[in-house]
Design goal:
The chain is of the alpha+beta class and about 150 residues long. It is built from 5 helices and 12 strands. It has one domain: OB fold (Dihydrolipoamide Acetyltransferase, E2P). The protein is globular, with a radius of gyration of 14 Å.
Length: about 150
């Protein structure tokens, strides 16, 4: 698993580095999305997670949820468009799950993507994510995940 500046980035995922979102392909053709450890470290302890409702459509590059921490409120943007088929109700009840376990318990939504083959080609595979993330962290002036909540 690549680790960049103390931030683990599992190599079995696909990444939208610019928006700090990961994608996991599911056996049924849907994709699960979540925030990377970089996103949760930059934001700090999450205090609210407000996803769009099941059945709602998400446009490519637009918000699938609003995330709030003590330092930041903003959209979780999905590179893929599609229909939300599941939201993480445990994360709604306990937003800090995204800080504690961003790649498993802290996922955001499950999306039935409309043009996954095209979008997938724009994402960075986990095995190749270290260099793009190192460049992004440098550009953002982010020191890393050490000491993050």
């Amino acid at each position: 698993m690549p680790t960049v500046r103390g931030c683990p980035l599992p190599d079995d995922l696909l990444y939208d580095v610019d928006n700090h979102i990961w994608f996991r392909e599911l056996p049924d053709g849907n994709v699960r999305l979540g925030m990377t450890t970089v996103a949760t470290a930059m934001a700090g302890q999450l205090v609210a997670f407000t996803p769009k409702k099941v059945g709602r459509d998400v446009q490519p590059g637009k918000s699938c949820a609003t995330v709030e921490s003590g330092k930041w409120v903003g959209p979780a943007k999905s590179a893929a468009g599609g229909t939300i088929v599941e939201v993480n109700e445990e994360l709604v009840a306990k937003p800090s799950l995204a800080n504690q376990d961003p790649y498993d318990a802290g996922w955001l939504i499950v999306l039935k993507p409309t043009d996954w083959a095209t979008v997938k080609g724009t994402l960075t595979p986990g095995a190749q994510v270290a260099a793009p993330y190192e460049a992004k962290m440098s550009a953002d002036g982010f020191a890393g995940c050490q000491g993050a909540p």
